[in-house]
Specification:
Elements (H helix, E strand, L loop, with lengths): L18 E3 L9 H23 L5 H23 L7 H25 L5 H8 L2 H12 L7 H18 L10 H24 L7 H23 L8 H29 L1 H4 L6 H13 L6 H16 L4 H4 L4 E3 L13
Helix pairs in contact: 1-4, 1-9, 1-11, 2-3, 2-8, 2-9, 3-7, 3-8, 4-7, 4-11, 5-7, 5-12, 6-12
Length: 340
Amino acid sequence: MSTVATPKQSPSPALSTTVTPVTEPKRRGLDWRINFAVLSVVWGFSFVFIKLGTDGFAPPYVSFGRMFFGAAVLVAALVIKRQRLPRSPRTWGHLAVAAFFCNAFPFTLFAYAELTIPTTLAGVCNATTPLWGMVLSLVALSEDRPTRRRFAGLGLGFIGVLVVLGAWQGFSGQDPKGTAMALVASVSYALGWIYVRRTLSGTGDGHLALSGGQLLIGALQLGIAAPLLSPLPSALPAVPLLAIFALGALGTGLAFLLQYGLVAEVGPTTATMTTYLIPVVATAAGVTLLGEKLTWNTPVGALIVLAGAALTQSRSRRSSRTGRTVAEGDATQRDAATQS
Protein backbone atom coordinates (compact mmCIF):
# COMPACT_ATOMS: atom_id res chain seq x y z
CA MET A 1 0.00 0.00 0.00
CA SER A 2 1.11 3.38 -0.67
CA THR A 3 2.74 5.84 1.45
CA VAL A 4 1.33 9.15 0.61
CA ALA A 5 -2.09 10.66 0.85
CA THR A 6 -4.88 10.53 -1.61
CA PRO A 7 -6.57 13.88 -1.87
CA LYS A 8 -9.74 12.55 -3.36
CA GLN A 9 -10.16 8.93 -4.19
CA SER A 10 -7.75 7.41 -1.80
CA PRO A 11 -7.15 3.87 -1.05
CA SER A 12 -4.19 2.96 0.67
CA PRO A 13 -2.07 3.51 2.82
CA ALA A 14 -0.17 5.27 0.44
CA LEU A 15 -0.42 7.24 -2.83
CA SER A 16 0.45 10.66 -4.03
CA THR A 17 0.01 13.81 -2.01
CA THR A 18 -0.89 15.99 -4.93
CA VAL A 19 -3.75 16.65 -7.27
CA THR A 20 -3.70 16.00 -10.99
CA PRO A 21 -6.12 17.09 -13.70
CA VAL A 22 -8.33 14.50 -15.29
CA THR A 23 -6.91 13.37 -18.62
CA GLU A 24 -7.79 10.74 -21.12
CA PRO A 25 -5.89 7.50 -20.46
CA LYS A 26 -2.88 6.97 -22.66
CA ARG A 27 -2.47 3.25 -23.11
CA ARG A 28 0.78 1.86 -24.42
CA GLY A 29 0.74 -1.89 -24.88
CA LEU A 30 1.11 -4.05 -21.80
CA ASP A 31 3.52 -1.81 -19.88
CA TRP A 32 0.87 -0.26 -17.65
CA ARG A 33 -0.59 -3.67 -16.82
CA ILE A 34 2.79 -4.89 -15.67
CA ASN A 35 3.24 -1.84 -13.45
CA PHE A 36 -0.31 -2.28 -12.15
CA ALA A 37 0.40 -5.89 -11.17
CA VAL A 38 3.76 -5.06 -9.58
CA LEU A 39 2.22 -2.22 -7.57
CA SER A 40 -0.59 -4.43 -6.29
CA VAL A 41 1.88 -7.12 -5.22
CA VAL A 42 4.26 -4.65 -3.56
CA TRP A 43 1.50 -3.01 -1.54
CA GLY A 44 -0.07 -6.34 -0.65
CA PHE A 45 3.27 -7.67 0.58
CA SER A 46 3.76 -4.55 2.71
CA PHE A 47 1.68 -6.16 5.44
CA VAL A 48 3.97 -9.19 5.42
CA PHE A 49 7.01 -6.90 5.63
CA ILE A 50 5.44 -5.13 8.62
CA LYS A 51 4.87 -8.46 10.36
CA LEU A 52 8.45 -9.59 9.72
CA GLY A 53 9.82 -6.21 10.78
CA THR A 54 8.08 -6.36 14.16
CA ASP A 55 9.78 -9.70 14.84
CA GLY A 56 13.00 -7.80 15.50
CA PHE A 57 12.07 -4.16 16.08
CA ALA A 58 9.48 -2.22 18.06
CA PRO A 59 6.64 -0.82 15.90
CA PRO A 60 7.84 2.82 16.02
CA TYR A 61 11.19 1.79 14.56
CA VAL A 62 9.51 -0.28 11.86
CA SER A 63 7.59 2.83 10.82
CA PHE A 64 10.67 5.04 11.07
CA GLY A 65 12.66 2.68 8.85
CA ARG A 66 9.80 2.59 6.38
CA MET A 67 9.70 6.36 6.16
CA PHE A 68 13.49 6.71 6.03
CA PHE A 69 14.05 4.25 3.18
CA GLY A 70 10.98 5.48 1.32
CA ALA A 71 12.15 9.09 1.56
CA ALA A 72 15.62 8.05 0.36
CA VAL A 73 14.13 6.61 -2.84
CA LEU A 74 12.13 9.74 -3.57
CA VAL A 75 15.02 12.07 -2.79
CA ALA A 76 17.19 10.04 -5.19
CA ALA A 77 14.47 10.41 -7.83
CA LEU A 78 14.37 14.18 -7.22
CA VAL A 79 18.13 14.40 -7.71
CA ILE A 80 18.02 12.32 -10.89
CA LYS A 81 15.20 14.44 -12.32
CA ARG A 82 16.81 17.66 -11.07
CA GLN A 83 13.73 18.74 -9.18
CA ARG A 84 13.65 20.67 -5.92
CA LEU A 85 11.76 20.21 -2.69
CA PRO A 86 9.05 22.77 -1.85
CA ARG A 87 10.35 26.14 -0.63
CA SER A 88 7.29 27.73 0.94
CA PRO A 89 7.17 27.51 4.78
CA ARG A 90 3.38 27.33 4.50
CA THR A 91 3.62 24.29 2.23
CA TRP A 92 6.01 22.60 4.67
CA GLY A 93 3.55 23.27 7.48
CA HIS A 94 0.79 21.54 5.55
CA LEU A 95 3.15 18.69 4.66
CA ALA A 96 3.92 18.18 8.35
CA VAL A 97 0.22 17.69 9.11
CA ALA A 98 -0.21 15.45 6.06
CA ALA A 99 2.83 13.37 7.05
CA PHE A 100 1.37 12.76 10.49
CA PHE A 101 -2.10 11.67 9.34
CA CYS A 102 -1.06 9.90 6.12
CA ASN A 103 2.16 8.30 7.25
CA ALA A 104 3.65 8.53 10.73
CA PHE A 105 0.49 7.86 12.74
CA PRO A 106 -1.21 5.17 10.60
CA PHE A 107 2.07 3.39 9.75
CA THR A 108 2.83 3.07 13.45
CA LEU A 109 -0.70 1.94 14.29
CA PHE A 110 -0.58 -0.79 11.65
CA ALA A 111 2.78 -1.95 13.01
CA TYR A 112 1.36 -2.14 16.55
CA ALA A 113 -1.80 -3.83 15.24
CA GLU A 114 0.14 -6.59 13.49
CA LEU A 115 1.66 -7.63 16.79
CA THR A 116 -1.70 -9.25 17.56
CA ILE A 117 -3.70 -9.53 14.33
CA PRO A 118 -2.87 -11.40 11.10
CA THR A 119 -1.82 -9.67 7.89
CA THR A 120 -5.09 -10.83 6.29
CA LEU A 121 -7.16 -8.80 8.75
CA ALA A 122 -4.80 -5.80 8.49
CA GLY A 123 -5.18 -5.81 4.71
CA VAL A 124 -8.97 -5.85 4.94
CA CYS A 125 -8.97 -3.03 7.51
CA ASN A 126 -6.80 -0.99 5.15
CA ALA A 127 -9.40 -1.47 2.41
CA THR A 128 -12.00 0.35 4.53
CA THR A 129 -10.25 3.68 3.95
CA PRO A 130 -12.60 4.74 1.10
CA LEU A 131 -15.58 4.03 3.38
CA TRP A 132 -14.22 6.27 6.13
CA GLY A 133 -13.31 8.80 3.47
CA MET A 134 -16.90 9.05 2.33
CA VAL A 135 -18.17 9.51 5.90
CA LEU A 136 -15.66 12.27 6.60
CA SER A 137 -16.10 13.96 3.23
CA LEU A 138 -19.80 14.48 3.93
CA VAL A 139 -18.70 16.93 6.62
CA ALA A 140 -15.40 18.27 5.30
CA LEU A 141 -16.05 18.54 1.56
CA SER A 142 -19.34 20.25 0.88
CA GLU A 143 -19.01 19.79 -2.90
CA ASP A 144 -18.73 16.02 -2.57
CA ARG A 145 -22.45 15.26 -2.63
CA PRO A 146 -23.55 11.75 -1.64
CA THR A 147 -25.77 9.61 -3.85
CA ARG A 148 -27.99 6.65 -3.10
CA ARG A 149 -25.41 4.37 -4.69
CA ARG A 150 -22.64 5.70 -2.49
CA PHE A 151 -24.77 5.42 0.65
CA ALA A 152 -25.55 1.83 -0.34
CA GLY A 153 -21.83 1.21 -0.77
CA LEU A 154 -21.15 2.65 2.67
CA GLY A 155 -23.69 0.35 4.30
CA LEU A 156 -22.49 -2.65 2.32
CA GLY A 157 -18.88 -1.97 3.23
CA PHE A 158 -19.51 -1.87 6.94
CA ILE A 159 -21.58 -5.05 6.73
CA GLY A 160 -18.49 -6.59 5.17
CA VAL A 161 -16.39 -5.43 8.13
CA LEU A 162 -18.81 -7.14 10.51
CA VAL A 163 -18.58 -10.34 8.46
CA VAL A 164 -14.76 -10.25 8.55
CA LEU A 165 -14.80 -9.79 12.32
CA GLY A 166 -17.39 -12.53 12.86
CA ALA A 167 -19.94 -10.30 14.59
CA TRP A 168 -22.47 -13.14 14.93
CA GLN A 169 -20.06 -14.98 17.24
CA GLY A 170 -19.12 -12.00 19.36
CA PHE A 171 -15.96 -11.14 17.40
CA SER A 172 -14.26 -14.18 18.87
CA GLY A 173 -10.88 -15.07 17.47
CA GLN A 174 -9.89 -11.45 16.74
CA ASP A 175 -7.90 -9.19 19.03
CA PRO A 176 -10.14 -6.15 19.66
CA LYS A 177 -7.29 -3.77 20.43
CA GLY A 178 -5.24 -4.69 17.37
CA THR A 179 -8.28 -4.55 15.10
CA ALA A 180 -9.26 -1.16 16.49
CA MET A 181 -5.75 0.16 15.83
CA ALA A 182 -5.89 -1.01 12.20
CA LEU A 183 -9.29 0.61 11.69
CA VAL A 184 -8.17 3.87 13.32
CA ALA A 185 -5.16 3.85 10.99
CA SER A 186 -7.53 3.61 8.03
CA VAL A 187 -9.54 6.54 9.40
CA SER A 188 -6.29 8.49 9.69
CA TYR A 189 -5.54 7.83 6.01
CA ALA A 190 -8.96 9.21 5.11
CA LEU A 191 -8.44 12.31 7.27
CA GLY A 192 -5.06 12.81 5.70
CA TRP A 193 -6.20 12.76 2.08
CA ILE A 194 -9.05 15.14 2.83
CA TYR A 195 -6.55 17.52 4.44
CA VAL A 196 -4.20 17.19 1.46
CA ARG A 197 -7.01 17.86 -0.97
CA ARG A 198 -8.00 21.02 0.85
CA THR A 199 -4.54 22.45 1.47
CA LEU A 200 -1.96 21.17 -1.01
CA SER A 201 -3.67 21.46 -4.37
CA GLY A 202 -2.48 24.40 -6.42
CA THR A 203 0.77 24.97 -4.54
CA GLY A 204 2.78 24.97 -7.75
CA ASP A 205 4.97 22.10 -6.56
CA GLY A 206 5.07 18.78 -8.40
CA HIS A 207 3.97 15.35 -7.18
CA LEU A 208 7.50 14.19 -6.56
CA ALA A 209 8.54 17.30 -4.63
CA LEU A 210 5.47 17.23 -2.37
CA SER A 211 5.66 13.50 -1.71
CA GLY A 212 9.42 13.59 -1.10
CA GLY A 213 8.95 16.45 1.33
CA GLN A 214 6.12 14.65 3.08
CA LEU A 215 8.15 11.49 3.61
CA LEU A 216 11.19 13.45 4.78
CA ILE A 217 9.23 15.34 7.41
CA GLY A 218 7.40 12.15 8.41
CA ALA A 219 10.75 10.42 8.93
CA LEU A 220 11.82 13.35 11.10
CA GLN A 221 8.63 13.08 13.15
CA LEU A 222 9.19 9.37 13.77
CA GLY A 223 12.90 9.88 14.38
CA ILE A 224 11.93 12.09 17.31
CA ALA A 225 8.96 10.04 18.51
CA ALA A 226 10.37 6.50 18.23
CA PRO A 227 12.93 6.79 21.07
CA LEU A 228 10.22 8.31 23.27
CA LEU A 229 7.85 5.41 22.57
CA SER A 230 10.29 2.53 22.77
CA PRO A 231 13.93 1.89 23.78
CA LEU A 232 16.55 1.97 21.05
CA PRO A 233 17.15 -1.43 19.38
CA SER A 234 19.94 -3.41 21.01
CA ALA A 235 20.59 -5.47 17.88
CA LEU A 236 19.98 -5.36 14.13
CA PRO A 237 18.62 -8.79 13.14
CA ALA A 238 19.04 -9.42 9.42
CA VAL A 239 15.59 -10.64 8.35
CA PRO A 240 13.55 -7.94 10.13
CA LEU A 241 15.99 -5.28 8.91
CA LEU A 242 15.69 -6.49 5.30
CA ALA A 243 11.90 -6.55 5.69
CA ILE A 244 11.89 -2.91 6.84
CA PHE A 245 14.18 -1.95 3.98
CA ALA A 246 11.81 -3.64 1.50
CA LEU A 247 8.82 -2.02 3.19
CA GLY A 248 10.32 1.45 2.78
CA ALA A 249 12.26 1.22 -0.48
CA LEU A 250 9.74 -0.95 -2.34
CA GLY A 251 6.39 -0.62 -0.56
CA THR A 252 6.77 3.12 -0.07
CA GLY A 253 9.34 4.76 -2.36
CA LEU A 254 9.17 2.57 -5.46
CA ALA A 255 5.42 2.12 -5.06
CA PHE A 256 4.91 5.86 -5.30
CA LEU A 257 6.98 6.09 -8.47
CA LEU A 258 4.99 3.24 -10.04
CA GLN A 259 1.72 4.87 -9.02
CA TYR A 260 2.87 8.19 -10.43
CA GLY A 261 3.61 6.53 -13.77
CA LEU A 262 0.28 4.70 -13.79
CA VAL A 263 -1.72 7.87 -13.20
CA ALA A 264 0.15 9.61 -16.00
CA GLU A 265 -0.41 6.71 -18.39
CA VAL A 266 -3.90 5.36 -17.69
CA GLY A 267 -5.49 7.99 -15.46
CA PRO A 268 -6.30 8.01 -11.72
CA THR A 269 -9.46 5.90 -11.92
CA THR A 270 -7.70 2.85 -13.35
CA ALA A 271 -4.61 3.40 -11.23
CA THR A 272 -6.54 3.44 -7.96
CA MET A 273 -8.06 0.03 -8.70
CA THR A 274 -4.95 -1.40 -7.04
CA THR A 275 -6.76 -0.67 -3.79
CA TYR A 276 -9.09 -3.58 -4.40
CA LEU A 277 -6.28 -6.07 -5.00
CA ILE A 278 -4.20 -5.20 -1.94
CA PRO A 279 -6.22 -7.31 0.58
CA VAL A 280 -6.25 -10.21 -1.89
CA VAL A 281 -2.44 -10.17 -2.14
CA ALA A 282 -2.05 -9.61 1.61
CA THR A 283 -4.29 -12.57 2.37
CA ALA A 284 -2.53 -14.88 -0.07
CA ALA A 285 0.89 -13.85 1.23
CA GLY A 286 -0.10 -14.21 4.87
CA VAL A 287 -1.54 -17.70 4.37
CA THR A 288 1.24 -19.07 2.15
CA LEU A 289 4.31 -17.41 3.67
CA LEU A 290 3.37 -16.89 7.31
CA GLY A 291 1.07 -19.86 7.77
CA GLU A 292 -1.86 -17.73 8.91
CA LYS A 293 -5.22 -19.48 9.25
CA LEU A 294 -8.03 -18.42 6.95
CA THR A 295 -11.69 -18.92 7.78
CA TRP A 296 -14.51 -18.50 5.29
CA ASN A 297 -15.74 -15.18 6.69
CA THR A 298 -12.47 -13.33 5.97
CA PRO A 299 -12.48 -13.64 2.15
CA VAL A 300 -16.28 -13.34 1.97
CA GLY A 301 -16.28 -10.24 4.17
CA ALA A 302 -13.35 -8.79 2.23
CA LEU A 303 -15.28 -9.12 -1.04
CA ILE A 304 -18.24 -7.32 0.53
CA VAL A 305 -15.97 -4.55 1.84
CA LEU A 306 -14.37 -4.08 -1.57
CA ALA A 307 -17.75 -4.02 -3.32
CA GLY A 308 -18.95 -1.36 -0.91
CA ALA A 309 -15.75 0.66 -1.30
CA ALA A 310 -16.12 0.53 -5.09
CA LEU A 311 -19.67 1.87 -4.85
CA THR A 312 -18.62 4.74 -2.58
CA GLN A 313 -16.04 5.78 -5.18
CA SER A 314 -18.47 5.68 -8.10
CA ARG A 315 -19.33 8.89 -9.90
CA SER A 316 -22.10 9.84 -12.25
CA ARG A 317 -21.29 10.05 -15.96
CA ARG A 318 -21.80 13.79 -15.83
CA SER A 319 -19.27 14.34 -13.06
CA SER A 320 -16.77 12.00 -14.69
CA ARG A 321 -16.73 14.27 -17.76
CA THR A 322 -15.99 17.44 -15.84
CA GLY A 323 -12.59 18.98 -15.47
CA ARG A 324 -12.48 18.68 -11.71
CA THR A 325 -9.18 17.60 -10.27
CA VAL A 326 -8.85 14.23 -8.63
CA ALA A 327 -6.32 12.71 -6.39
CA GLU A 328 -3.53 10.54 -7.64
CA GLY A 329 -4.29 7.17 -6.28
CA ASP A 330 -4.63 7.28 -0.65
CA ALA A 331 -4.05 7.96 1.31
CA THR A 332 -4.35 6.69 0.80
CA GLN A 333 -3.77 5.56 0.09
CA ARG A 334 -3.66 3.84 0.92
CA ASP A 335 -1.60 4.33 2.71
CA ALA A 336 -3.84 3.36 1.53
CA ALA A 337 -1.43 0.87 0.83
CA THR A 338 -1.84 1.94 1.45
CA GLN A 339 -0.51 0.48 3.04
CA SER A 340 -0.07 0.39 4.70
